[in-house]
Prior knowledge:
This protein is mainly β. Helix content is 4%, strand content 42%. It contains one helix and twelve strands, in the order E-E-E-E-E-E-H-E-E-E-E-E-E. A hairpin with a 2-residue loop joins strand 5 and strand 6 (47-55). The radius of gyration is 17 Å and the shape is globular.
Amino acid sequence: MIHTYPEAELPIPPSLAPNGERSWHWVELGLIVPHFLVKVELLSPEGWISRHILTTEFQFVLDNLNEEHARVTTVYLLSGFEADGAQHPACHEISQVWATDDDNDALIDLVFVLRTGVVMASLPWFRLAYVDSSTMRLIADLSKNAGPHVQ
C-alpha cells in the first residue's frame, strides 16, 4: 500500500519515537482501500500535542475518539483517482461514518458523509445504489458541531 525510499526518511529523535515510529518526507500510496489521515491530540507531561497518523484501519479512529490521553480531532478520507469524480487524488474531511448492519463487526462496507455533504463508499465495488438505508447504522459522528464521538 505504501512504498517508501531510504532517501525520503526523516530522522526522528528517540524521545519522540518511543515505539520505533518512523517518518518520511514523502511516500507513494496505492489507494485501493480507503486511507485515513487522522489528526490526534496526545496528552504529554507538557500538555496536548498534535500528531497526524495515516492508517487504513477505521477501527483505530473508533478506538481513539474519546480516550483520556488521546483524542481524534479530525479525520480525512484520502480518495484515489476518479473516486469522487475528480481526475486526481483528493483529501476530504469526514463528517459521519455509516456501516452496514450485518451479523459481523467487520468494518468493511463503510459509507462516508463528507463535510461538503458528498457521500462516498469505502470500496469501489460497494455501490450506494444497492444499499438499503434501513440496514445502515451511524458508527461515528465527526461533525464539528457534535464533537467527535462513537455511536
